[in-house]
Amino acid sequence: MNDPIQMENIILEREKRYIGLTENISSDLFNVLSQTTPAIVASLFKKKNPNTKQIHSHDTSIKCAICSSEFTIKALTIAQVQDRIKAQRNGFGSLCDTCQKESDRFDREEEERKKLDREKAIENNTKCMIKHYLNPNNVWKTECTHKNRFHDITYYTVNDTIIKEYIRQMEYSLFLQTPYWKAIAQEVRIRAKFKCKQCENSENLAVHHTTYENHGNEHNVGFFDLICLCDKCHKKAHNIKDK
Ligand SMILES: [Zn+2]
Ligand SMILES: [Zn+2]
Ligand SMILES: [Zn+2]
User: Which ligand gives the minimal distance to the CA of 241?
Assistant: First the structure.
């Protein structure tokens, strides 16, 4: 392609072929265009006389990518033709009306199915959390690492409203026994490097709620209202509050 004469010939050849301003595009031409590089396609659509005020308008025939029937779209602008060509080139052929409707319907149903699956999964996760992790009589298996415990509590999407209501109707002392709270409290202690936030003491650490606003949604609010305190500072925190 570095031979100037060859280049010149290509350009001359190109000048002979120009897609007229209102030329109909047959499905054969459309196919050829979609196998041609974007730069050449663009050059084929260049106005022969740049001063003309007329704008490109092409009735374009395309073979449906699904049923292969030919259909014609009236008066596409050059940008619309090129969008279709680009899509075809990238493997997204155009569809006839019937196939398009069918495809849209399929997409809608698929979306609906996915939505139902998501809802079902959330419902199951919620039940699972209540049954296993919010049961004060359940304990974590010793072989289950903290990382896995924390993952189990925070990873699955649950219905936060139901979980919150469920936790809030629990007796608080029972809540503190749940695998749910134990995993969360341990995470808070780890993040605090097992030191009291007030006095850096590392013995008898408790995890304290600075507010109870998010009580019941501890698993997904980022722990900003949970702090690690030693027994002494914890008692102090509650006394100050209670007064
Ligand atoms: Zn079709
Ligand atoms: Zn507390
Ligand atoms: Zn302390």
Answer: 2
Ligand nearest to the CA of 185: 2
101 occurs within a structural domain: no
Instruction: Give a three-class secondary structure readout of 57-71.
Output: CEEEEEECCCCCCEE
The answer to whether residue 113 is domain-embedded is: no
- Quote the domain boundaries for residue 154: 138-242
Residues 30 and 89 in one domain: yes
Residue 108: inside a domain:
no
Q: How many CB atoms lie within 10 A of CB 205?
A: 21
Q: How many helices (H) and strands (E) are present in the chain, helices listed first?
A: 10, 4
Name the closest ligand to CA 209: 2
Distance CA 98, CA 27 (A): 18
Residues 100-127: pLDDT tens digits?
Answer: 999 999 999 999 999 999 999 999 999 9
- How many angstroms does the Cα of residue 191 sit away from the middle of ligand 2? 17
Determine if the pTM surpasses 0.70.
Answer: no
- In a shared domain, residues 91 and 152: no
pLDDT in tens, 15-38: 677 888 899 999 999 998 898 888
Structural domain count, the chain? 2
- Measured in angstroms, how far is the CA atom of residue 105 from the centroid of ligand 1? 14
